[in-house]
Specification:
The chain has a two-stranded antiparallel sheet with strand order 1-2. The chain is mainly alpha-helical and 761 residues long. The chain contains 34 helices and two strands. The N terminus is likely disordered. Helix content is 58%, strand content 1%. Among the domains are: 120 residues, no CATH class; 178 residues, no CATH class. Keywords: Repeat. InterPro entries: PPR_rpt (IPR002885), TPR-like_helical_dom_sf (IPR011990). This is Pentatricopeptide repeat protein.
Length: 761
């Protein structure tokens, strides 16, 4: 009886998409006596985990460093500022948002056009030989293609060479000669989907069956996966068509035994088009036993579909309807937690092999800047499956309640989607700097908010399966499963979570030390994405010196330095602009770029100019700023003193930027002197190339800075030798304000380094 209570019927699975709730269907004490969570979900697999455990170091040694670096600023103040003027840019998670959608777009992309689709439809409608195909040529080809594999390869080559009529004629002729043609049909069907002609594929599919050629297991996979691609033909209902084929496969008269390939392809179709009702129908039909019962990949695809539905459901909800957003998200989050309850139930008993991809996918489902508690649950998830210590205090917030930082980032993301990606942000204006007294006041306000959150009434909250991420006692015990070992993807997720939690920036440093620096930790070599995520975390806490240490000690030695890392690092200086050492730190970033990159990235150069501008506008910061030339201490007039300090700053900025500008100028000159097609054709194949548009923007801004210095404002302080050095540079850069030259640079797409730029001596 107890065993039956641990399994939900497949009929229940079909109701998941409608937001079915478990309620108190099972008694906690009964399930606890079985060693299961009070909220186990449905279960249908039996496997044995073979992963080896790597226990992490004790939490205590990281808690000490966590306390010592807990200098992250209060982010309650963020809500006071308008997101539209912010350069904070709200890159909450690149791989969660932009990168994931980009991969989905690439996967669904087709290579055909309207003419090709019409040609394929005409060929599919015909029953005999296509026009213009010589029968003798077909017979001569078939004479040497007795092997079905060779025949399929030949058809693939003909399709690749755009000789589609000949390929179709050969397949039909081979059928009349009773040859084995299944591989050739599969090639043709796949080609139709690749060209965006699913209706043509279905006509060929039906033509194949009418010729008594039964679909093979691979044929069903091709048809189902093909329907995930875009269609250039109107009137296609991909989910309905896919389910029709899927039912043919499951039919008792089918000669093909369904396998994981077919189940996963059908789940992928449902997820691609966000049809959750159909997805739960398919899940409900999955076998509970046998070699083709669901695996970790099956659950990963289900969670991927939930994640896609989350994005799709809340994409167009305006900022003033957050309750609607919460309602839509809540339903899908509970479905995902039920899925995870079943995963852990099976993993606990050794019936399911857990993998890292499944854990990471569940984490991405939970992460949301407007949902602090579920974002925190990601850390509990990693503790449960990988034994990664939790260094962040429990936010103790109600479900679907975001931190102030998270709310601010979510608002930015929504505004970016509505206003487009071409708007210009400003890192220095997103949040004004407060005095020490104001900081203390806001920290007190934050504490009050936390206390209020802790005391809120939660009796009316819907069940959220909050204990589904509790630790599993059976892990690493005799006969039990083993912890997984985290990798770069999980480090990226942890840093993302720490960035959006109210008290996450300081623990984020602890996690970085644990994963990458501590010899007793996980010894993970950070990839570029990890470095980007950590630098963004440091940007929030205004830790420009730490960012410089990361660049010097970790990024440069591994050879992974690029313009993007320096851009994020330089933006740390923009956030840390009251630091007396900020100019020296920013100059160090420029020196690193000059030493290790053949062509400077324009973004950090532009950031450096923005930093200089904001420092110039606030002379009180110049009084303590290090890195300026000695200023005449005898000046007693505050106006003269301020002008002298501003000139010292501008002179330092010009000297720091001049070698970068000269190097960019040489490459941009080559663009102007070379054929346009050489620089504008194709994608960027050169990893060291930079954007022509961004390079032009930097040159224009640098020239404006030079013109200001040469103006009357600094007429009394600029020496003749300085003027003689600056004027030729300003004149040289003015050419990029010429509309014709600017247009050519813009159209060049990329600027490539010259051969001598690779000499770093």
């Amino acid at each position: 009886m107890h065993g039956a209570m641990l399994r939900y019927s497949n009929g229940f699975l079909r109701n998941l998409g409608a937001g079915a709730r478990l309620g108190k269907r099972f008694q906690n004490d009964t399930l606890s006596s079985l060693g299961a969570s009070p909220h186990v979900g449905f279960s249908f697999t039996r496997s044995t985990s073979t992963f080896v455990s790597q226990p992490p170091p004790p939490r205590a040694q990281y808690e000490e460093s966590f306390e010592s670096i807990d200098d992250a600023p209060s982010r309650v103040k963020l809500a006071r500022y308008t997101p539209r003027t912010s350069l904070r840019n709200a890159r909450l998670v690149e791989s969660q948002g932009y990168n994931r959608h980009l991969r989905e777009k690439e996967r669904r992309e087709v290579a055909g056009n309207k003419e090709e689709v019409e040609m394929l439809m005409e060929l599919a409608k015909g029953k005999g030989f296509p026009d213009g195909v010589n029968l003798s040529v077909v017979n001569r080809e078939l004479h040497w293609l007795n092997d079905p594999k060779d025949f399929g390869i030949r058809i693939g080559l003909l399709l690749q060479a755009q000789k589609v009529p000949l390929a179709v004629a050969m397949i039909r002729r081979a059928e009349s000669m009773k040859m084995e043609t299944s591989a050739a049909w599969n090639r043709l069907l796949s080609y139709c989907f690749e060209r965006g002609a699913p209706l043509a594929a279905f006509r060929f599919y039906n033509d194949m069956k009418k010729r008594a050629r039964a679909p093979t297991a691979h044929t069903y996979t091709v048809m189902l996966k093909g329907l995930c691609r875009k269609s250039l033909q109107p009137g296609v209902k991909p989910v309905d068509l896919a389910y029709k084929i899927y039912r043919q496969l499951l039919d008792t008269d089918s000669d093909v035994t369904p396998s994981h390939h077919h189940y996963h392809a059908m789940l992928e179709v449902c997820g691609t088009y966000h049809d959750m009702d159909m997805l739960w129908t398919v899940v409900g039909d999955l076998p509970e036993l046998g070699p083709h019962k669901p695996t970790a990949q099956t659950y990963t695809l289900i969670l991927q579909a939930i994640l896609g539905a989350l994005d799709n459901n809340i994409r167009d909800i305006p900022e003033d309807q957050m309750e609607l957003r919460k309602e839509k998200r809540e339903t899908l989050i509970l479905d995902a937690k039920r899925i995870w309850a079943d995963v852990i139930s099976q993993w606990r008993k050794g019936e399911l092999v857990l993998d890292k991809e499944l854990v990471a996918k569940m984490a991405w489902v939970l992460i949301d800047p407007m949902d602090e508690l579920n974002s925190y649950n990601v850390l509990a998830l990693f503790k449960q499956t990988m034994d990664v210590p939790i260094l962040v205090p429990n936010p103790k917030a109600a479900p679907l309640q975001g931190s102030e930082q998270g709310k601010w980032e979510a608002a930015l993301r929504l505004s970016k989607k509505r206003e487009g990606f071409d708007q210009e942000f400003n890192y220095t204006s997103w949040k004004s700097l407060e005095s020490e007294r104001e900081n203390n006041e806001m920290e007190g306000l934050e504490d009050d908010m936390v206390a209020k959150e802790e005391g809120q009434d939660t009796e009316n909250l819907v069940e959220d399966l909050g204990d589904v991420f509790d630790p599993v006692e059976e892990v690493n015990s005799e006969g039990g499963p083993s912890f997984l070992k985290p990798d770069n993807a999980h480090l990226h997720i942890i840093l993302t979570v720490c960035r959006i939690l109210t008290k996450g920036t300081a623990p984020g440093r602890g996690y970085w030390n644990l994963f990458t620096l501590d010899q007793n930790g996980y010894n993970i070599e950070p990839d570029p994405g990890n470095f980007y995520a950590y630098l963004r975390l440091l940007r929030i806490s205004r830790s420009s010196q730490t960012a410089l240490d990361v660049v010097h000690q970790q990024i440069v030695p591994t050879g992974k330095l690029d313009g993007k890392a320096l851009h994020i690092a330089m933006s740390c200086c923009l956030r840390d602009r009251t630091n007396p050492n900020v100019l020296v730190i920013a100059q160090s970033f420029l020196s690193v770029m000059l030493e290790h990159l053949p062509l400077p990235d324009p973004k950090p150069l532009t950031n450096f100019i923005e930093l200089a501008n904001v420092l110039t506008e606030n002379p009180q910061w110049l009084l303590v700023l290090r890195g300026l030339e000695d200023i005449d201490p005898s000046a007693t007039n505050l106006t003269i003193l301020g002008r002298n300090m501003r000139w010292a700053l501008q002179k330092t900025v010009i000297e720091s930027l001049e070698p970068h500008a000269n190097r960019l100028y040489e490459s941009m000159e080559r663009v102007l002197d070379s054929p346009m097609k050489y620089y504008s054709s194709g994608s960027n194949k050169c990893p060291d190339a930079v954007s022509g548009h961004l390079a032009l923007q930097f040159m224009v801004k640098f020239r404006e800075l030079l013109d200001r210095v040469l103006g009357v404002q600094y007429g009394d302080v600029v020496t003749k030798s300085d003027r003689d050095r600056i004027l030729p540079l300003a004149i040289k850069l003015r050419k990029f304000s010429n509309p014709e030259i600017a247009e050519k640079i813009e159209r060049s797409v990329i600027i490539r380094p010259l051969s001598h730029h690779y000499s770093y001596d």
